[in-house]
Each structure stands twice: as structure tokens, then as C-alpha cells.
Amino acid sequence: MLYGKEHVARYRETDGEEGHDWNGTVTLLLTTTGRRSGQERTTPLIYQLAGDDHIVVASKGGADDHPLWYKNIQSNPEVKVQVKGDKFTARARTATPDEKPALWKKMTAVWPDYDVYQTKTNRDIPVVVLERV
């Protein structure tokens, strides 16, 4: 099974033929700009579609702090996304309180552990909407 840098490398090399389908679900590559370094950072994330938008969860396995990629989008919401061979620029935003319940349900349907992760932390785990620009 692919993880981390190896996952990113194989996904890019094969346009997602390896890495898109992962552990019974699907992943995309999210590239953010480091809020301190200014360097690009790429993370494979489980996603689902909501209309034309891609949805991801900033879970970090239920850690008490947000994942670095989420902190990066708070500083610079313009991101690059790759879904299989489709590469595009998107604007990342945190789902509104009205949007979140339906989006959370959509994400836990494909990765039930998100509910477990939420029980591990007092942090409200954000759902992020990636809107193609």
C-alpha cells in the first residue's frame, strides 16, 4: 500500500493509475504553498465530489492540531489539485457550518474512521471544499 512521498511519486508518474484507488477509497493530490517556507507541499488525500467541487477532510488522524496542509490553505487558499490525469488550480475553503453536516456524512460514508478521529480530539475537524478556478 502506498503512503506519503511514495504515494505522491507513483500517483504523479502514472497519472493516478497507481494511487488514485487506495485502501477501498479514492485519493487526489493536493499541493499547497508552505505558509513559512513558500515551498510547494503535496499531500495525498481521500476525496469525494459535491457537485463540481472536490471535498477533503483535515483530520490528521484525530490529532489535536490541524494538519500542515490545512494551515497552509488558511494562509494561501490557492492550491493545485490532481485527480488521476486531471490537474487544475482550485481555491480551498472551509465548509460553512450549514454545509458541513452533509459533506461530513458523504466523507464518512467512504472513510468511517473520520468519525473515530473526531472522538479523539476536541478540535472541530474541518471539511475543505476545493473549488476549481
TrEMBL record:
Which cellular component appears as one GO term in the record? plasma membrane
Any one Gene Ontology molecular-function term assigned to this protein's record: oxidoreductase activity
Q: Which organism is it from?
A: Actinomadura soli
What is the catalytic activity of this protein? oxidized coenzyme F420-(gamma-L-Glu)(n) + a quinol + H(+) = reduced coenzyme F420-(gamma-L-Glu)(n) + a quinone
Which one Pfam family would you cite for this protein?
Answer: F420H2_quin_red
- What NCBIfam families does the entry give? hi_GC_TIGR00026 (TIGR00026)
This chain belongs to which protein, by name? Nitroreductase family deazaflavin-dependent oxidoreductase
Its family remark reads: Belongs to the F420H(2)-dependent quinone reductase family.
